[in-house]
Design goal:
about 425 residues, alpha/beta, Aminopeptidase, Alpha-Beta Plaits, six-stranded mixed sheet, four-stranded antiparallel sheet, 10 helices, binds zinc ion
């Protein structure tokens, strides 16, 4: 088989109006998560389009996953275009959920407004622009190369913004990312059209609770303040743990620069009497707090072992316990993700890099995300390592007011995706 003379990126560019319209249509379905609105609608809309184009379309509800209910069912769409000829399968996976709108918008967050080369709306860059680009890329490729070998899959999945358990994790459990079935995965998250995201750092969330004894606030010596014990924990973190984390630096190409170090955020702190509801005009009660809790969000590097990450925190608490009278604590683990990083020599990386060079005339940057995304499930549950994030849009705009995606960025990245299909499903390898 030979490549056609007409450049595939030009054929993609000729579909710009269709690409913009599809992106707008996706934005106009407000798939807010939480709680998980209109998932079925967006799956139906995309599924109908692809079915009309000859794709096999399945709608899969992630029954009994977190958040799934008859009111808010977790629907996913998986479409497959099988050439009927033996070959590999390339899968484009996008999450269809978006985060809350928040304040500060000057545009209609669900209007899909097109203005001066940008499409605005919640989810425009994260990641309905990328989803639309992958659909257009696949459609243009199939039209240009009906003789291709192998198969293309496009999925639109639920709940990435809340962990992906009702989306990619569920599909991975069903075997949908088994390397026997799928060989290459591209997740069109908004990493910029000239960057290939190889993976992400790891995560460990835990709740630390300190214990004390309740007493009257006028006689605190009769009690034992859990808040003061927590103060000792925070002081020890400042003195030893934060400097230790800042001294660890990864060889992973993490962006932004600050995320090359290990990090820890204290998400919340609660202790003593709970805050009164707005409008309550009474005074607080004088009570020594007997419980104090913080939630920590530790992000770790591929060079770190998760057991060591946990041991650092437990070791710090034991050190305090050894010197501080009556110090009692408990650690409750909440969530963990192991770092994931695809090799730069992996086939989907090499193919995407070559395509970026052809479309944009420069070599890509390789990056690693500070936070996780659905690649974790494809790697850990699906056992598929040949996976990247690549898509249009500027990551900093994600979750912001007046979120937008550039039309030219969508066109260019769709051109790249189409060339990847040409490389993997046509060119001799
Ligand atoms: Zn996203």
């Amino acid at each position: 088989m030979v490549k056609s003379d007409t450049s595939l990126p030009d054929l993609v560019a000729a579909r710009e109006a269709d690409l913009v319209a599809l992106c707008q249509d996706l934005i106009r379905i407000p798939t807010l998560n939480p709680p998980g609105l209109h998932y079925r609608n967006i799956c139906d809309m995309l599924g109908a389009r692809l079915r009309d184009g000859g794709w096999d379309v399945e709608l899969i509800r992630a029954v009994d996953t977190p958040g799934d209910s008859d009111t808010y069912p977790r629907w996913n769409m998986v479409a497959r275009y099988d050439s009927g000829r033996p070959g590999e399968t390339v899968h484009f996976n996008s999450h269809h959920d978006v985060v809350e709108v928040g304040h500060g918008w000057t545009r209609d967050p669900f209007g899909g407004e097109l203005d001066k080369g940008r499409v605005y709306g919640r989810g425009a860059c994260d990641m309905k622009g990328g989803l639309a680009a992958s659909v257009i890329a696949a459609e243009a490729f199939v039209a240009a190369h009906p003789e291709f070998a192998g198969a293309i899959e496009i999925s639109a999945t639920a709940d990435e913004e809340t962990g992906g358990y009702g989306g990619v994790a569920y599909l991975a459990e069903l075997g949908r990312f088994d390397p026997e079935r799928v060989q290459h995965v591209i997740i069109p998250e908004p990493l910029n059209k000239d960057r290939i995201c190889l993976g992400h750092r790891g995560v460990w969330w835990a709740e630390i609770e300190t214990r004390g004894r309740i007493a009257h606030g006028s006689m605190p010596f009769l009690g034992d303040s859990a808040v003061r014990h927590m103060g000792a924990v925070l002081a020890e973190m400042e003195a030893t743990l934060f400097p230790l984390l800042a001294s660890k630096e990864t060889a992973m190409p993490v962006v932004p620069e600050g995320a090359k170090n290990s990090t820890l955020n204290i998400n919340s702190i609660h202790g003593g009497e709970r805050e009164q509801d707005p409008g309550y005009t009474g005074l607080p009660a004088p009570v020594v707090p007997d419980r104090c809790r913080i939630i920590i969000d530790r992000r770790f590097l591929i060079e770190e072992n998760i057991e060591d990450v946990k041991a650092e925190v437990r070791g710090m608490l034991e050190k305090i316990k050894a010197t501080r009278p009556n110090f009692e604590y408990e650690v409750r683990e909440l969530f963990e993700v192991i770092p994931s990083m695809t090799d730069e020599d992996a086939p989907v990386v090499r193919s995407t890099a070559a395509a970026i060079e052809r479309v944009l005339g420069r070599m890509p940057d390789y990056v690693v995300s500070p936070g996780t995304y659905d690649q974790k499930h494809i790697d850990r549950i699906g056992r598929l390592k040949n996976c990247i994030a690549y898509g249009p849009g500027i990551l900093d705009l994600a979750h912001q007011p007046d979120e937008w995606v550039g039309v030219q960025d969508m066109v260019d990245s769709a051109g790249v995706m189409a060339l990847v299909l040409e490389d993997l499903l046509i060119a001799p390898r």
